[in-house]
Amino acid sequence: MVHVRGKSDSAIVAVKPVNKAEQSAAELVEPRVETEGKADQQSTFRAQNRADVSQALERLRQAARQRKKERFTALFHHLSIELFGEAFFDLKKNAASGVDGLTWQAYEADLERKLEDLHARVQRGAYRALPSRRVYIPKPDGGQRPLAVAALEDKIVQRATAAVLNAIYEEDFLGFSYGFRPGRSQHDGLDALVVGITSTKVNLILDADIRSFFDTVNQSWLIRFVEHRIGDQRIIRLIRKWLKAGILEDGVVTIGDQGTGQGSVISPLLANIYLHYVFDLWANRWRRREAAGNVIIVRYADDIIVGFEHENDARHFLGAMRERFKEFALSLHPYKTRLIEFGRHAAANRERRGQTGDVQLSGLHLHLWADTRGQISA
Q1: What is the pTM of this model?
Q2: Which of 92, 273, 332, 375 has the fewest CB atoms within 10 Å, counting from its CB?
Q3: R_g over Cα of the chain
Q4: Given CA atoms 325, 326, 329, 330 in this order, what sign does their dihedral have?
Q5: What is the pLDDT of residues 148-168, one digit of tens each?
Q6: 339 closest CA partner among 152, 202, 241
Q7: pLDDT tens across 212-261, in order?
Q8: DSSP 8-state class, residue 123
Q9: Beta bridge partners of 134
Q10: Minimal CA–CA distance to 100: which of 140, 50, 153?
């Protein structure tokens, strides 16, 4: 965590945490207990499928890299049976069931036939998304966080679609975005912030928290943002189906025009696309064109840290950011968003003003650094 120490402290110490090796995004799943020959055949078959899927997605990545302004109008064929199979095996075997009540183990039985049927329904437009089941998990501040648990087949199609879209958007997303992206973790975001605050003149930090972000995303704006790059209307229709499937809670299905269903497989990617256009591109342009001094940015999903050399830059950015968010149906949390004095003179300045005690970053302290608490002090 990063905090500005109070009355009794006068030094800044930054310790860079040691990164652990990242696990593969697609964990291997052992085949069902069968004869040795069948197990070997299944393993070979899955390995071939993975290779085919990987090659197809790599070609898509190269096209996205080379044609930054192009809208992709023919993506649906990438949603293959092989990709659905990889998506299924990527799912957590012990994950909670959706409204369908299906478990991973139950769906695995006769898997090939089920995936063929699912693929056929998706390709001919007969696939229907089911409402997500609302569950709640405790938040660090004592409240409850609502999550949407999708039906198992919805998870499969969402994960496969996310793999296709990630191949494109990973070529577009900016470097200071770290949340829920392939090959990036909390530790990477933390490392970037360490480098930023120790190698750049940073005297103020904006700790920004978007109020109820996943519940307030405007779906109309989201679709418009997706259509900047995705011209295949069959992919757009899939996304609309998930957004409009609704949430089942206490026997009632609620369908609205806001929110992405936090907890669903596709939600983190859709959230990153929304903030890529609402915040990332705008903030990067503001940093280049408006700032008089140094500005560093780290975003992890809806938690944002911006460091400034000059106070005027910090205050102008915060005001402009509020207006920018208002245009796209977002708002900053009034109690969790604040400017924090930072640097070697911060403790002395606070003492001179009669302010004591520790000042801690809130959003990233709770989310980005959940596993690395206490490894950075300032």
Answers
A1: 0.81
A2: 92
A3: 23
A4: positive
A5: 999 999 999 999 999 999 999
A6: 202
A7: 999 999 999 999 999 999 999 999 999 999 999 999 999 999 998 999 98
A8: H
A9: 148
A10: 153
